[in-house]
Amino acid sequence: MACLRRARARPTFAREANREPVMAKSQPAERALEGLLFASRWLMAPFYLGLVVALLALLFVFAHELIEMLPGLASLEETDVILWLLKLIDLSLVGNLILTVMLAGYENFVSRMDHREHPDWPHWIGKVDFGGMKLKLIASIAAISAIHLLGIFMAPDSMDGAKLGWLIAIQLAIVASGLALAGMDYIEERGRALHDKS
What we know:
The protein has helices at 2-24, 28-39, 45-69, 78-109, 130-154, 161-197. It is an all-alpha fold.
């Protein structure tokens, strides 16, 4: 009798197990809406293509600055050469910022790239999530702002004290924002680690 009861119970569990996926299925309208929302991520692709155009424009500015200053480089003073180099470094950091947003943003929000077809694939692209991208962006902005501020310090006569004070305050605010973001990410990771252990 016990064997018969267990045999009768098995189909019941099987029917209940088969019933759960049916209950979990979405309605056709809901599935269509979810598919439309998921497909809308491709609307971000033109933005990243626009960043490619912006990178080309930045390259034109960099080349123009380089070609314009090279002929008279021997006659420049040391301060002018340093200011010129700082401007080139500033432009290169802006290019790095555009490249980071373009590649990491596409990887995180649009579609994953097949890195097997690219032998020179940067290792950080697939590892940078949204939190890491925020930190990279704020670090790049802080570096760009610091180089711009350093260029102003190299030629203090071209700016009054009040405007210089505002620029220093903005630089400190950018650094504080980066530290706050890093702290929030650290607290979130610690909380997730403690939750996984429990």
